[in-house]
């Protein structure tokens, strides 16, 4: 069955960096775009970044442009989110997303001021 397993979240000070990973299985990973979403307490889930099948095209939320980088390794079936210059407002649960209702379990990112 489809599995999306995130890792790499944690507690970091403002200005710091984290790298999230999402290991995918159960579908033809290289045939699909992948994305990262996040949900902060009391807020709706929002798209953070999207990457095309082979990584040639990426899109970012305005709030993270220039600070976050999405990438993928199709051989490892893994999508990454490199997060630099983190801000307290980046605090949220980050989810890997494939399509339809296929979400990862989420990984908590907390940025302290």
Description of the molecule:
By secondary structure, the chain is mostly beta strands. Helices cover 0% and strands 50% of the residues. It is built from no helices and ten strands. It has strands spanning 3-7, 10-13, 18-25, 34-39, 46-51, 58-60, 68-73, 78-83, 92-97, 107-112. The strands form two sheets. The protein has a six-stranded mixed beta sheet, with no helix packed on it. It has a four-stranded antiparallel beta sheet with strand order 1-3-8-7, with no helix packed on it.
Which class of secondary structure composition applies to the elements?
mainly beta
- Count every beta strand, where a strand is a DSSP E run of 2 or more residues: 10
Instruction: For the largest sheet, list the strands in their spatial order.
Output: 2-10-9-4-5-6
> Could you describe the largest sheet, including whether it forms a barrel?
6 strands, mixed
């Amino acid at each position: 069955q489809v599995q999306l397993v995130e890792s790499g979240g944690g507690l970091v000070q403002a200005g710091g960096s984290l790298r999230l990973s999402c290991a995918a299985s159960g579908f033809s990973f290289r045939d699909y775009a992948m994305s990262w979403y996040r949900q902060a307490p009391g807020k709706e889930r929002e798209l953070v970044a999207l990457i095309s099948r082979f990584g040639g095209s990426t899109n970012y939320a305005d709030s993270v442009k220039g600070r976050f980088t999405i990438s993928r390794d199709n051989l490892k079936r893994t999508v990454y989110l490199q997060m630099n210059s983190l801000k307290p407002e980046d605090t949220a649960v980050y989810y890997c997303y494939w399509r339809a209702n296929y979400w990862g379990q989420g990984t908590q990112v907390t940025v302290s001021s």
